[in-house]
Amino acid sequence: MKTILLNDKNYNSELQTLCKRPACPAHIEAAVAEIVQQVKERGDAAVCEFVKRFDNVDMTPDRYLVTPEEIAEAKKLVTASQKQAIKLALKNIRTFAKMTIPKSWKKQVRPGVTLGEMYQPMERAACYIPGGTAPLVSTAVHTVGIAKAAGVKSVVAMTPPMKNGKVNPCTLYALDLAGATEIYKLGGAYAVAALAFGTETIQKAEIIAGPGNAYVAAAKKLIYGQSAVDMVAGPSEIMILADGKGNISFTAADVLSQAEHGSGLEHAVLVSPDKKFLTDVEKEIYRQAESLTRQGPLRKVLENGVFLIQVKDMKAAAGFAGDYAPEHLEIHCENPEAIAKQVRSAGAIFLGQWTPEPVGDFTAGPSHVLPTGGTAKYFHGLTSMDFMRRSSIVKYTEAAILKEVSAMERIADMEGLDAHKRSASIRRTK
Fold it and tell me: 368 an active-site residue?
């Protein structure tokens, strides 16, 4: 854990490095490039090799797909209270997703000219559900649930197998409830590549959405263009802006909430103008950490990924948050809405000490699939729109185009495109 004093005029090199952290470390991207190429060239043969190497499971192509019998078995293993929790989360997520579906529209914008937009759901979307270090049951509803709400007919899910070659029962139940039409027992970079290029048994997807570790994030970056991707969403991050008047135990617990994910590359950043508050929270973090179960991953992040940063005031805290562009941003102060307006970039913002980040992870409604590694400056969290196609609508009458032909001709002349010019001018002489 590191404590740093922010110099408002000139960030020290450590803070500059923190703000410019790569979404995908170069050495990981290089390793993933070879995996992606092998799957592209050798299809199922490469996938079988990688599932053995990375997941330690012998898997033949005929066993990739989860069967109806496996789904039925999983349903029996999920308790009534677990089912109730998953149903609540899915209900809230579907409600929010439907509220954010873009609407098609048309309007006459000038005499004889009608413009608009048409939105249609994609036909085949893929959702990646992490499961290597922890079964992220919630991601099933935060991805598949949104795709189905957007109207996608074919929603494929990919999730790593457990050591017994099966999918975690709760994850499988959530995927089925959310509406997944195909569920594959495959994970990691090789699964992303299989979805992007297709194999002998796996049909390619139009978009690949969902979070993952740095290897999954690198794979999504490398296959961009072969399929669409939602964003680069790698190891989790949380930043908390606190004025120092809030509950110390709450703040420490929230710092630890993202540190336990498992890769060791997670970040937890606490920013406050109150030096004593930072010191007190640090002690409380260590105290609470002792009672948590995931000690291995936790210790890695506590050593290298937790930063306590002292700033001049909350305005400076908001400025630093915009530079860092966190995946999750909590704001603990008397008027969090006012501070939020000063933050230039963040994946999701949680207002007040009664709104911890896990409400976003589980039940709030907006997707917990969010940009990491500073990419919140140009990516947004997963929404219904990501699963839709947008087409411009343009319609001219004869009178309307004749008013603009001359301008079209002049622009075509400037660009040296005489076929373009003729396409416009021929309508004048007809």
Answer: no
